[in-house]
Design goal:
Helix content is 40%, strand content 10%. α2 packs across α3, α3 runs parallel beside α4 and α4 packs across α6. It binds iron/sulfur cluster. The site of iron/sulfur cluster (SF4) has 9 residues, from loops.
Length: 417
């Protein structure tokens, strides 16, 4: 008797597979959150559900996106990836038209404001990239779709096809994958660091050219107006936080990236033997995002953030990197809240950019007291050892050997309430 081939999965089944496979992509705002589920109908607000993610539009709005893969078939064999060629995982594939239809259906029902589309590599990098571009082309040209589009691009594809992606998408991203070239060679043997950075460099140049063109000609085509971003996997190779921070800062500098996303490596079913058995603590990903913030908004040089790391080159998990830096470099404190320049106020643990702006505005009219600062911060206990006001000096507190322990206890108590 002739063997019957298994029935083709329905659109819904394929959506489940390809939305689930996309959850490993961290390039959106909801990727780093603690996962909560609402299984069994208990509770609302699940972050486990697949298919919708959140991202920030260029104007700062938080928008929801349909986040899926075009396919999870792949001819590459990256060890850390659930979709790699040798993985035993259910496979599925959409046609470009199916992705377009799903996007428009979800959009019309007000479920989403845009699309985040990535893909495994089928047949060839060029073929896959053409299919991704085709989705964006149909949406923009045939349906006049004005929603947000984020396309993952494949660095191995021809530059001209990647260029097409930038003409239709708001944001493009190219995954750098791992913090070191040695890690990439070992864990993603089909990928090449030079090719990845070459594609990032060309994308940067085209973004700049398009901006210049539009200054001269109002109708010149846009090219990735929301810029480019990348993603780095944390904890799959041996790279420590200092190396990751150094790499991220170089990527920001060399390629004008809008964001570097971190994705804590998670052990996958049927994992390759070269991978660690345990995922790194989720808090490590969070500390790296905090260090990213220090470099982008608090004026810290990459080396200064790396200096906050412990002897093994990793940031402490029990305190944030700004507090870790302040505890290591206590000679820079206390800072006089009524006189210190903005750069030094931004270094005070517990003072965020908004609090610093309000301090600078208020002190033009009067001298600030400790109570005034307390009203601007969540924990004055965290700030007190590092500042002076007209009525407060920390005297020996700043230099106490047990200061770290005191502050860790306070922040644990804060988390309880
Ligand atoms: S190319 Fe992408 S989808 Fe394919 S195995 Fe590597 S990381 Fe996974």
């Amino acid at each position: 008797m002739a063997q019957q081939s298994p029935p083709k999965p329905t659109l819904r089944q394929r959506l489940e597979i390809l939305a689930d496979a996309a959850k490993y992509d961290a390039s959106c705002a909801s990727s780093g959150t603690a996962k909560k589920n609402s299984l069994g109908g208990k509770g609302v607000g699940s972050t486990e559900g697949m298919g919708i993610c959140h991202a920030y539009a260029p104007d700062g709005r938080c928008i929801s996106l349909l986040k899926i893969l075009l396919t999870n078939h792949c001819i590459f064999d990256c060890h850390y990836c659930i979709n790699r060629k040798s993985a035993n995982t259910p496979r599925a594939r959409f046609t470009p038209q199916e992705v377009v239809d799903l996007t428009l259906n979800f959009y019309r029902r007000n479920y989403i404001e845009g699309l985040f589309l990535s893909s495994g590599i089928v047949r060839s990098a060029n073929h896959t990239m053409e299919q991704l571009v085709e989705v964006a082309r149909i949406l923009r040209e045939e349906h006049d779709f004005r929603g947000y589009i984020h396309l993952k691009t494949i660095p191995e594809a021809e530059p001209e096809i990647i260029h097409q992606a930038g003409l239709y998408a708001d944001r493009v991203s190219i995954n750098v994958e791992l913090p070191t070239t040695a890690g990439l060679t070992r864990l993603a043997p089909d990928k090449n660091a030079g090719q990845i950075e070459g594609a990032m460099g060309r994308t940067k140049a085209r973004i700049i050219e398009a901006k210049d063109e539009r200054k001269r000609f109002r109708h010149a085509p846009r090219f990735a107006p929301a810029g480019q971003s990348t993603q780095m996997i944390v904890g799959a190779d041996g790279a420590n936080d200092a190396a990751i921070i150094g790499k991220a800062s170089r990527l920001y500098g060399d390629f004008g990236l809008r964001r570097v996303y971190y994705s804590a490596f998670s052990p996958i079913p049927d994992a390759s033997a070269v991978l660690p058995l345990k995922r790194p603590p989720l808090l490590r990903e969070h500390r790296l995002y905090q260090s990213d913030w220090l470099m982008r908004f608090y004026g810290f040089a990459p080396q200064e953030v790396a200096d906050a790391a412990e002897a093994d080159g990793n940031l402490p998990l029990d305190i944030d990197p700004k507090l870790a830096w302040a505890l290591k470099f206590r000679a820079s404190f206390p800072v006089d809240v009524n006189r210190a320049p903005k750069e030094m106020l931004l270094r005070v643990p517990g003072l965020g950019t908004k609090a610093v702006a309000r301090i600078l505005a208020s002190r033009r009219h009067r001298n600030l007291r400790l109570d005034d600062v307390a009203r601007l911060t969540v924990s004055v206990a965290k700030v007190r050892p590092f500042i002076c006001t007209v009525d407060w000096r920390p005297t020996f507190l700043t230099d106490r050997a047990d200061l770290r322990g005191l502050l860790v206890r306070k922040s644990e108590q804060l988390e309880l309430f």
